[in-house]
Design brief:
65 residues, mainly alpha, globular
Length: 65
């Protein structure tokens, strides 16, 4: 990242946020073949992958012996 940049400026975070805010995958602002585009698209796709999310329950769900 360049000086003064924050994590929210990263293409990865921008891609994830684009998915969460309902933007289309085709709205990626980075040029074909760039590392930024790859990161943006990866984050966009991962943000929609619900298989990575698991309901592990809570401490209250554990039965006491």
């Amino acid at each position: 990242m360049s000086e003064g940049a924050t994590a929210s400026d990263s293409p990865f975070i921008k891609g994830r946020n684009a998915r969460h805010y309902g933007k289309l995958r085709d709205s990626c602002p980075y040029p074909e073949g760039s590392e930024e585009r790859s990161a943006w698209l990866q984050a966009y796709d991962e943000a929609g992958d619900n298989s990575a999310e698991q309901d592990l329950g809570t401490v209250d769900d554990v039965q006491k012996s």
